[in-house]
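Try this one yourself first.
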């Protein structure tokens, strides 16, 4: 599975570079947002968690209505919040580097987007109240890699600023079922973000 994820990532990078070398118009920018996320399959009724996300994006214009965009994001997923542990019996914090590859359809000031995302977990923490051994990671580890599907809608505030809303859901389980605690787990995330364009290349610009 990991080899497949690496192959997909390499293919997308090569494709974007090929489009760039073909003198396609492109835009580059930064992204900042806030997400609400949950871990499906949990049976402890833990509340969703909220965290900030940040990264940058690279967008290529395909034609008058379609663009392709790839991003590198640093974000958190999981359930529960440290400051609400008394109300949240199960807390899971998963920290990811994520690379979404999106196709966007533009209509006037609006755009709609969809596409896969490749995630790699760089750190995690878990706490389960009432459990003799709260750390379940050794016996029931989370998958380091994640394949997800993304769908969203956005609004262009002006030429440089964009506001977006995106939903993401794991396509494959990120953890097998833990007995008496949960079913098979999937990440689910809803993110609100704003982006700022830093550079734009027009179709008529020359390449060295």
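Now uncover the answer:
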């Amino acid at each position: 599975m990991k080899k497949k994820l690496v192959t997909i990532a390499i293919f997308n990078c090569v494709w974007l570079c090929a489009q760039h070398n073909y003198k396609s118009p492109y835009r580059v920018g930064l992204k900042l947002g806030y997400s609400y996320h949950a871990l499906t399959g949990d049976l402890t009724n833990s509340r969703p968690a909220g965290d900030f996300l940040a990264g940058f994006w690279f967008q290529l214009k395909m034609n008058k209505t379609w663009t392709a965009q790839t991003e590198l994001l640093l974000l958190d997923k999981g359930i529960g919040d440290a400051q609400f542990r008394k109300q949240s019996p199960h807390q899971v914090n998963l920290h990811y580097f994520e690379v979404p590859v999106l196709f966007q359809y533009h209509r006037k000031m609006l755009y709609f987007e969809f596409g896969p995302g490749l995630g790699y977990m760089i750190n995690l923490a878990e706490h389960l109240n009432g459990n003799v051994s709260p750390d379940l990671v050794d016996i029931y580890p989370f998958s380091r890699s994640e394949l997800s599907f993304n769908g969203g809608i956005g609004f262009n505030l002006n030429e440089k600023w964009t506001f977006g809303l995106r939903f993401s859901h794991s396509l494959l389980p990120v953890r097998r079922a833990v007995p008496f605690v949960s079913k098979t787990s999937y990440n689910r995330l809803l993110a609100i973000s704003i982006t700022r364009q830093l550079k734009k290349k027009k179709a008529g610009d020359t390449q060295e």
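Discussion: The chain has a mean pLDDT of 81. Helices lie at 2-21.
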